[in-house]
Write a structure and sequence with these properties.
Length: 295
């Protein structure tokens, strides 16, 4: 379990470093193309700060509203409430706000900016179809996302994707409408720089999205391992994932903006053996095998 956790943390930070390089490179090219110096990086920073502030303080409310989750208290659903409460005590976390999604599929997600401002949402299908140990594994997985600060990390990653996309779009529009100063004034070198900038602007949003999805998949493996460490029973989560693989259908409120938050994809095809580059989650069969290989 500890080896799995360490490995996924290293891979996540490697991907985040690559992400930072893409943003810096795009900002530098933008500044060079329009004689702004470090202005391109300043623009990227300003956009990132504004988007981050909104996501940081309001992102969880948006995610819960999109998913159709509604809050519950102990008297509304004592079974789910007590499971979450017991696991938070075991993990040393403060109790998150607990929500239920009226959907027959087995799924759950966590969101928020930190453990003291976190929410967890569980489908009615998960409560009805999972055995006690299986549901504990699912809840522990989501609490692990909170404890590992994945809920904040994924907000940052999404904002980074937005910054790259906005900068690339602005660069392309400005270039085609006005042309680049260096392209007009610097001869062949300026033309080469502008061509390189255009290629980077076209490809960087796709590259940024691929990094986002890769980070999401690594955090799922990490949360699986952390869940097993919390419950000391990897088989519970493994059996829950088997039921998700065998019985889940697309969720009624499935949305691409929040798909990466769930323990399994809310869309169809969750049981496919191969996860494509644009998959939000690793293959379920691989997750099950890793869980059963832990000792």
């Amino acid at each position: 379990m500890y080896n799995q956790i360490d490995s996924n943390k290293r891979k996540t930070w490697l991907l985040m470093t690559i992400f930072l390089i893409v943003i810096v490179l795009l900002g530098w090219v933008f500044g060079e193309a329009y004689d702004l110096g470090y202005g391109g990086l300043v623009i990227a920073l300003m956009i990132a700060v504004l988007m981050n502030l909104f996501s940081y303080f309001k992102g969880d409310k948006v995610a819960l509203a999109i998913s159709g989750a509604h809050p519950i208290q102990k008297e509304n659903n004592p079974y789910i409430y007590r499971l979450v409460e017991n696991l938070t005590i075991a993990s040393g976390l403060p109790l998150p706000k607990i929500h239920v999604i009226n959907d027959p599929n087995i799924n759950a997600f966590a969101c928020g900016r930190d453990p003291r401002h976190a929410s967890i949402a569980i489908t009615t299908g998960a409560a009805e179809k999972l055995e006690n140990e299986e549901l504990e594994g699912v809840i522990a997985h989501e609490l692990s996302h909170i404890k590992n600060y994945d809920i904040r990390l994924m907000t940052i990653v999404i904002v980074c994707v937005g910054v790259v996309t906005l900068m690339a779009d602005f660069f392309l529009r400005a270039n085609f409408m006005f042309g680049g100063k260096r392209d007009r004034n610097s001869g062949n070198l300026g033309a080469i720089l502008m061509i390189a900038g255009l290629v980077l602007a076209i490809l960087s949003p796709v590259f940024a999205t691929l990094i986002q999805l890769a980070v999401s998949r690594k955090r799922e493996y990490l949360a699986d391992a952390s869940s097993s460490l919390l419950t000391r029973y990897p088989e519970g989560l493994a059996r829950a994932l088997e039921k998700i693989r065998d019985f889940n259908q697309p969720m009624k409120r499935a949305n691409h903006a929040t798909a990466h938050l769930y323990i399994a994809s809310p869309f169809s095809g969750v049981g496919k053996k191969m996860a494509g580059l644009f998959a939000t989650h690793p293959p379920i069969d691989e997750r099950i095998a890793k869980l059963r290989g832990m000792a």
